[in-house]
Design brief:
Layout: E1 2-9, H1 15-34, E2 38-46, E3 53-62, H2 65-69, E4 74-79, E5 92-100, E6 113-118, E7 134-139, E8 144-148, H3 154-182, E9 198-201, E10 206-207, H4 215-230
Parallel strand pairs: 4-9
Antiparallel strand pairs: 1-3, 1-5, 2-3, 4-5, 6-7, 7-8, 9-10
Length: 231
Amino acid sequence: MEIKTIQITSGRGPAECCWVVAQVLKKFLVATKNSALDYKILQREKGIENMTLQSVTIQLKGKHLDIFLNQWLGTIQWIGISVFRPQHKRKNWFIGLYEIEQKQQFQINEKDITYQATRSSGPGGQHVNKVSSAIRAIHQPSNVQVLVMDSRSQHQNKKIAKIRLQEKVSQLQLNALQSSIKNQWENHLKLERGNPIQIFKGSDFKTNTIVKTYKKQRNVLKNDLRDQLKK
């Protein structure tokens, strides 16, 4: 199971580009579902106009992510009349779809957890459990720890501790990722206008298939071969 994080961004483009981001997101999520991939939207940056997005960050999980993303990573072009400024002369609008490099991902493995039994504390007088039933769980790679004293059963507290430790480590990773996203503004600045990976057209946002059959190249080779045979 692979995990990748991508960002769809308008760069510093105008409202039209933010509209394109919102439209591409819809297309992208449909393609994700059709490819049996799981996704989670981590962050949305709204545009100035309603129903627009300056950027959106998505985490993908599944097999063969590289193959899927080869069809999407890069510059995306929309050819159409501005939905906000119909009289605008510009007809070509560009956004980008990039992969975000992630820092180390901590996976919760039982061998990475240290459990320490300790006595429960707090109000309750004689009703407080005097045996060592509370459990402190420490995730060694990240040094994240939790203390659980929910139950009088040490075994039950241990199970709860592992669940809470997983949640805490996951939240730590998410916070680090969101911080990383905010620092990756270069994605908003490096849109390449040429050689788009995907092209959409019109107000209905239909896909304009980029044909890569190399038909012209084959015809050129055939003509060259005929010329050679004639000599």
